[in-house]
Amino acid sequence: MLILRCPYCGVMADETELVPGGEAHLKRSGPGSSDDDFEGYLFHRENPKGVHFERWRHSAGCGKWFHAARCTVTLEVFGTYPAQVTEPPQEIREAISSKRPGWSWREYE
Amino acid sequence: MSEPVSALAGARFDGFAKVEALPPRGMVTVRGDFESAALQAAVRSAVGIDVPETGRVLFGVGTAIAWLSPDELMVFCAYDAVPEIVVGLQNALADTHALVVDVSDARALFRVSGLDVREVLAKLTPADVSPNALGPGVLRRTRLAQVPAGIWMTGESAFEVMCFRSVAQYVFDILKGAAIPGSEVGYF
Ligand SMILES: [Zn+2]
User: Fold this and answer.
1) Chain B, 64-83: which have a CB under 8 Å from a chain A CB?
2) Per-chain mean pLDDT for chain B
3) Which of B26, B43, B95, B160 makes the best surface tag, with the fewest CB within 10 Å?
4) Model-level pTM?
């Protein structure tokens, strides 16, 4: 069972109070992009064994979307952060580095 | 003028805790930027209470304001005080990006009370309902079994529960089930 701290309410929200929103920090490729980029945006997702970044919505709470960084193997949560960012914040990356030295995910490390 | 009717007028259950459907109460949603001086002033003058901090509910004289999300408040008041409060807020916020809506008839309210009231809630929500986490002045939005709800303390051993009107019967039934005599867990 996953428990995430909602960065807006500050409450520890049980997984069943949340709705998963898939992979975080997708870069949109829309009209005018190449077929390959558009295909990647629509269909290609990370499936890591370890560090992962996801979107979640506090659906039974404040209703807001937020981000979570966690480990898919141990369910350890490295941190949660608001939705108004386009990449993982520095403090989250540092928190991961202290637990999983040498980690990388997409272009981030 | 038609008579306001609550979803489950007068329904009650006496188990190891008491579950009561509450009569109609005024509820006004306010959405906007809490940092804005205009919104803070509008709320203070129309309701007489300040904008509460994150996750909190503040009580006034016959009124209350709850923090529901980073841009959403719920004002509680007497049912017949709603028009005045809505107009007061709307006028004060006319030049501000904000929303004021009367949602009194869209919600149902319950009162759950008794010495073991936390037992009843704990059976239905994944939220921490211990006195440390859910004490006076906290409003926790969470789920009760399968539907969203808000829970806050209104007395020594009494809580109020808010849910959508369309699930009022469901919420009453699950609260009833959780309060059936003999089903105390004895955790709290
Ligand atoms: Zn939240």
Assistant:
1) 68-70, 72
2) 96
3) B95
4) 0.93
